[in-house]
Amino acid sequence: MRLLIMGPPGAGKGTQASAVAAHFGVPAISTGDIFRANVAQGTPLGVEAKRYMDAGEYVPDEVTNNMVRNRIAEPDAQPGFLLDGYPRTLAQVTELDGMIDATGHKLDAVLVLTVDQDALVGRLLKRAETEGRADDTEEVIRRRQEVYREETEPLIAVYGERGLVVEVDGMGEIADVQQRIFAALDELDQS
Ligand code: ADP
Known about the structure:
This protein is of the alpha/beta class and about 190 residues long. The protein has a single domain, classed as Rossmann fold. It has nine helices and five strands; from the N terminus they run E-H-E-H-H-H-E-H-E-H-H-H-E-H. It has a five-stranded parallel β-sheet with strand order 2-3-1-4-5. Helix 1 packs across helix 9. The protein is globular, with a radius of gyration of 16 Å. The structure holds adenosine-5'-diphosphate (ADP). The site of adenosine-5'-diphosphate has 19 residues, from helix 2 and helix 3.
């Protein structure tokens, strides 16, 4: 199973990604989490990424592409993976196509969580209180949403043309969203 999960910042991708990945027995690979781990450990990659993340900007494609390429080459990702937060630019889509083609596999589906943009800022500010992420200030949140709309939202149409998009309403309780995701993926399986 090779899946992507997409949606604006605060859509709950990370939360849902873990559950979906566990269900299919594949690793959930979050580029945001990998960057944050590198920042925490003070690696050269972390030092470079932090400058962008703190401003709500995307880390340069080259850096991100190499990181993902290495990660999905690891043994646990051979049966498949669920990517959370990648690709986020058209250039990253092309790179990912190349990485997957090279293994002789294909992408199975792109889960898109749809959410009400206004509800998102509130969610993210709440997360700032509980998790203390450096990029969860109101100003940076708004910038991340803007960058998402400009750079990443257009990817949904690209994957839509390939017939891969599975749209799920991401509003409401975590468990309800999870149920909707599994129902949508089941349908996909049968078609
Ligand atoms: P969110 O989905 O809440 O915006 P993430 O945890 O997925 O947050 O990512 C946090 C930050 O990490 C992003 O704002 C960006 O700076 C960086 N990042 C994550 N994934 C990518 C990517 N595919 N390309 C470029 N930058 C990325």
